[in-house]
Amino acid sequence: MNYEGQICRGPMERASFMLPVEVGCAYNRCKFCTLFKHLKFRELSMDQIEEELKRVSRINGNPKTVFLGDGNAFGLSTETLLKIGEKIHFYFPGCQSIHMDATVTDISRKSDTELHQLYDAGVRHLYLGIESGLDDVLAFMNKDHTLEQAYYEIDRMKAAGLVFDAHFMTGIAGKGRGIENAEHTAEFFNRTQPYRMINFSMFLHERAPLYQEIRKGRFHPADERENLTEERRLLELLKPWEHEAIYDGFHDMIEFRVRGVLPRDREEMIAKLDDRIAKEMPGLLAYVG
Description:
By secondary structure, the chain is α/β, with parallel strands linked by helices. The protein contains ten helices and ten strands. It has helices at residues 46-58, 78-91, 104-108, 112-120, 135-140, 147-159, 178-192, 209-215, 224-237, 266-279, and strands at residues 17-20, 22-23, 42-43, 65-69, 97-102, 123-131, 163-168, 196-200, 245-251, 256-262. The strands form two sheets. Strands 1-4-5-6-7-8-9-10 form an eight-stranded mixed beta sheet. Strand 7 (163-168), helix 7 and strand 8 form a beta-alpha-beta unit. Helix 1 (46-58) packs parallel to helix 2, helix 7 runs parallel beside helix 9 and helix 9 (224-237) runs antiparallel to helix 10.
C-alpha cells in the first residue's frame, strides 16, 4: 500500500505492523499540529485494507501487534473497526493485540457495549492526546475535550479492558506556566495511570496554526530550558502506581531525549534532565520560522 502523509505513531509501536485504515485525521483542528493539515481526510476502503493484509500474509507476515493508522483510527465506526479486526485475525492468526490513536470524543461516541465488543475483537492500547492538565490550555489549543470528560471516558475504556496510553506536550501552556502545567498534568496522570507516556515537547513549525498566535502575541512560547524544567517537575511528582509505566520524552529542537520505566528509572531520568538543564542557556525557543 502506498502510504500518504507522515507516519505518526508512538515509539513503543516501532515493532508493530502499521496498517493504514484512513488518510489524515478526522479531527485535525489542534493548533499545534501540522501532521495532517495538507491531507484531505478519508477512510480507506475495506478492499484496500484487505489487499494490504493479503500482501503481507503472502510474504509470510504474521505480526503479533498491529497498529492502525492514521490520526485517530478509533474514530471509525464500531462496525468498521470490527470488520477490520476480523480480517486482521484471519490473515494474521498470530495477532494478539490491535492498537491505535484515539480522541476522548471518539470514546464518547461508543457505548459501553461497543467498547467491550472492540476489546473482544482484540483492540487493546488506545493512545489519547491528553496534551495538558489545564482546561484553559486544552480550550486554547482546540482540543476536543475537557479534563472531566477525559476522566470519564478513560474510566469507561478501562472498565472495558482497554489500555490507556497518553500523548502530552511540555511547553504547551506557554512561557512562565511550565511548573503549573507539570503539577496539573502529574495530578491527571496519577489519577488515570497510563501504561505509556509520550512527551512530544513543544516544537512548532511556521505552518502550525499556533505559529500565527505567536505572531499576534496571543501565545508566548517557553524556551527549552523551561520545557526541561517542566518535564523534571512532572517526573518528580508522578507517584508509584499499580503498574510500571514506560516514559519517553522528546525535545527535538535540542535533540535531547529522556526515557525509561517508572518508577524504576525515575532518579536516573531526573539526573539526566538536571545535567541538561545546567547546560541549557535560556532563550532557545522551541519553534522555527
